[in-house]
Amino acid sequence: MAALAASDRDALLAMGSPRTYRAGRRIMAQGAVEDFVLALSTGWTTVSADADNGRSVIFGLCGPRDLIGEMAVFDGGPRSANVTALTDVSARLLTRGQFQSFLRGHPHAYEVLLRGMAIRLRAADVHSQDLATLPVLRRLARLLLDVDGEDPRSAAAARLTQNELAAAIGATRESVAKALADLRSRDVLRTVDRRIVVIDRPALAAIAAL
Q: How far is it, in rounded angstroms, from Cα 74 to Cα 5?
């Protein structure tokens, strides 16, 4: 929603009803047939999908001003991913009818949202290629680079467990633990209160580009 004009964003939020979700709650379930969209106000969620072999892959994080669930509303199909509250979350819920009414009345917002969906699909293609071709250490370094910085998404990503980091890069927990230990031994990162803190970004970037 950050890309929307302020007037469009205000109109979108005015149509929804408030919802809150506690950390750890499953907000949307892959395969579920639902007809609502959530506009996140505060808090962070993980977006993941379950594979046929039982493993889970985390595609990314969604937080304040992100819109989730719109794809199922656009095409009427089932949810393509799970959405789980990483922290306590507050949001505005719009039914399919409310969301479609908003789009009809705000054609520029419609274009912005479609462009955002296209960007996410392109990013998913790149992510899939990385999972298929890159070693675990490089995949982990790229993930940490993506979430390290001034964006508040960084603080949210630091909450991810080793299991969740493994799901985000398509690896085992054991291989992630080994890669993290390697990065700590090189003084690239440290763990503070069970959260990952990058202390040598140039070195991490060099590893990611190996």
A: 21
